[in-house]
Amino acid sequence: MSTHLRSLDLNLLPVFEALMIERNLTRAAVKLHMSQPAVSAALKRLRATYEDELFIRTARGLRPTERALVLHPSIHQALNTVRSGFQQTSFDYRKAEQEFSIVMPDVVETLMIPGFCKWLREFAPGIRLTVLPDESEMTARMVSNGEVDLIIDYLPVNSPSHVNQPIAEEELVIIVSKHNKNVGETISEKKFQSLPQVSLLRGNPMGSPMERLARPRKLQRNICLRVPHLSSFPYVVCTTDLIGVVPARMMISSYYKGLPIRMLKLPMAFPKVVLQLTWHKSQTTNPAHRWLREKILELYPSL
User: Fold this and answer.
1) What is the pLDDT of residues 79-125, one digit of tens each?
2) Are residues 238 and 178 part of one domain?
3) What is the CATH classification number for the domain harbouring 53?
4) CA distance 259 to 5
5) Residues of the domain holding 144
6) What's the CATH code of the domain at 222?
7) Confidence bin at 2 (pLDDT 50/70/90)
8) At residue 289, does pLDDT exceed 90?
9) Do 187 and 262 belong together in one domain?
């Protein structure tokens, strides 16, 4: 079917986008400040326009059809273009009422969010944050579709549609219990590969920073335990004979102060890992989005 612009009610497009993001009629209605019957009526018109169900009701909410998934990037980009024409050239965070969503690994959430939230509550109380776990290979698509605003991760998104900006460089270190008598002040590469280690679950799409660096070198490791969250490594290490590899900044934070843990240098020459800020290029000139990115870059070293 060829949908002509004259026959398309452009007011339906924000409804489509809200349904795609929320996957729920009631939540979409709240987001749009519309009644649920009005959203249902708009969905019926969208279905007629595109001659497709677009969203199928399931026990877990609305599931987009293949047609809806194909349409969404174009509709999202078109809406962003229209919105940009009405945007102010500045953003007053002190008075703004705005919600942002950020995807980040658990360890970055632990280190960054409490301090960042404290700053927001004091200086920008109208700003609301939703933090999502970095557990999906669909993360880049979520940014493209407008479901999330930013990704903060140790791996950039390699796509011409996305922008990556370094936040900080961090050195990887070995952590070992102070009570572990099998490990001295230094570790050879051979011993590092033989020592029992904790790592991330294989289901994690990206793996830990160590795994990402070790993969090209085909470095062998004696993985005895896999857990879903990097932030649990220190608690595992301090109560077992396992060792772990984590960003050094993680261990100098107050969250792990007092744990009986030693930090040792890696025996292999690895580059520092780079914490990246990633967003869709369509948001580059958005004043609110630009403010959020700049504030994260400004505050991160002190958080």
Assistant:
1) 877 766 665 567 899 999 999 999 998 889 988 999 999 999 999 99
2) yes
3) 1.10.10.10
4) 63
5) 98-167+274-302
6) 3.40.190.10
7) very low
8) yes
9) yes
